[in-house]
Amino acid sequence: MLTKDLLQYKTKKGQILPQFVNPADNQLLAIAEQLIAVFEASPDTPRATLLESSKQIIDSTPEAPIVKRGLEKLLLDRTEFDTAPNEELIAFRHKLFTETSRLLSEKQFQDYAAYEREVSRIMADESSTEETALRAKLYADLPSCQPVLTFNTLSAERLLHRYNAAQVQGLLLHCNTLTLKLADSMTAELRQLFKYLRFNQLLSTIRKEAELYHITVDGPLNLFYKTKRYGMNLANFFVAVLHQPKWELAAEIQFRNKQRYLLSLDESCGIKPIYQQFLAYIPEDIQLFQTMLENKTDDWQIRPGSQFLPLAGDFYCFPDYQLVHKSGVETAIELFHPWHQGHLIARLNTLAEQKDVSLILGVSKELEKKPLIAEALETSAYFAQFGFTFRDVPTMRSLLPILNSLV
Fold it and tell me: Fewest CB atoms within 10 Å of the CB: 3, 28, 32, 49?
């Protein structure tokens, strides 16, 4: 992900225009290859050494420095450093500070140099380390000294596409609302897109007009709860959009309560998918939920949501889970997290007038604490029959009575 200082964009007549690079530019490809080569050779290298080698390429090659620093940032995101606490070093520092305190209380020194020599002598005796190496050892676990463990490499062309995608993702971190238009193809890619919506716990309204799905997603600036995490989820969701054959995106971007700009993109922007489509991926929370259900009953089978449920007014729900009883009865579960207040109330209002949908509602206990939500749940006949609350993940104790009532 690119930070705001690394974003390149222009504004014109209320529009915000990301400044993409050309992934086929030979000069940029050569620079990307040099940077990738440095990172590929980095395992066991201290962070400072890696950054110095990278800086040499940034300083000695053409192209705008902001672009090269952006490429470097994306490569750092793919690099794992050894950040584990060094217990031996922690003990060494504790000993050093103890000796420092003792010396200051027991002796008088003419100057700081004499004091430093005495400390170094004592610590060298304790650790069998040369005095000249003590200073380096003292700071050996600073971030600049952390060695590289692994680097997840990629091709130069893919890095440039990744850079263009990151330009959009960086803008979406400052988004009020995002609207997508997608063709009603019901391909595996489209179903996976809606799974990404649910897996990332994004707030969305889905409706259908003619042959197009209109998806409106709230942005992090519209929230007052964990906006940073939500913004990252929204930015990551854009990666799934790139797998769609035809798409239109419109987002309202606003930096620090300043003027609002419209970001408009479609598949013609030329950004290729930057990750493989994980069609078979099942998140850990769903795997945990599946295991809990299997341990409690053999009557129900659960799987991640993969089908739309039509609701009143041409709106649709894409549930988190779908369940099938051995008798053939089917139902679905939609979960509402702490930032889903407005969407939960809208769903309760819709279901109050709709009796022909089998949808179980799970509501976060954090969300239930809000007076407006508590009142809505208490007065909802639908929730009283088909609703439950949960903390981190749903529990069988809350869910099984509802499931059994359906059969």
Answer: 3
Give the Cα separation of 75 and 7 in Å (integer). 16
* Phi/psi of residue 387, nearest 5 degrees: -130, 155
Average pLDDT over residues 390-406: 87
| Type of residue found at 105 | S
Provide the strand spans (E) within 140-287: 148-151, 175-183, 204-209, 212-218, 247-254, 260-266
Question: Which of 74, 245, 244, 233 lies closest to 160 in space, CA to CA?
Answer: 74
Is the pTM higher than 0.85? The answer reads no
Handedness of CA 321, 325, 330, 333 (dihedral sign): negative
- φ, ψ of residue 155 to 5 degrees: the values are -80, 160
* Nearest residue to 233 (alpha-carbon basis) of 172, 305, 166: 172
Residue 26 or 182, more confident: 26
* Contact indicator for 165, 237 with CB cutoff of 8 Å: no
User: Within the chain, what is the greatest distance between any pair of CA atoms?
Assistant: 90
Asked if 248 and 242 count as a contact pair (C-beta separation under 8 A), the reply is no
Question: What does the alpha-carbon distance between residue 302 and residue 280 come to, in Å, rounded to a whole number?
Answer: 15
What are the pLDDT digits (tens) for 194-242? 777 777 777 678 887 877 888 888 766 655 555 677 788 888 889 888 8
Give CA separation, 273 vs 16, 139, 333, in Å. Answer: 22, 42, 30
**H-helix or E-strand containing 379?**
helix 371-379
Q: Is 373 a residue whose pLDDT tops 60?
A: yes
- Containing 12, the helix (H) or strand (E) segment is strand 9-12
**Which of 267, 3, 22, 10 lies closest to 161 in space, CA to CA?**
22
| Predicted local confidence at residue 361, as pLDDT | 93
pLDDT classification of 126: cutoffs 50, 70, 90: low
Dihedral in degrees, nearest 10, Cα atoms 287, 288, 290, 292: 160
pLDDT tens readout for residues 36-54? 999 999 999 999 999 999 9
Question: Rounded to the nearest 10 degrees, what angle do helices 26-40 and 47-60 cross at?
Answer: 160
Residue 226: the pLDDT is 55
Domains of the chain: 87-140 (no CATH), 173-277 (3.30.70), 284-405 (3.40.1350)
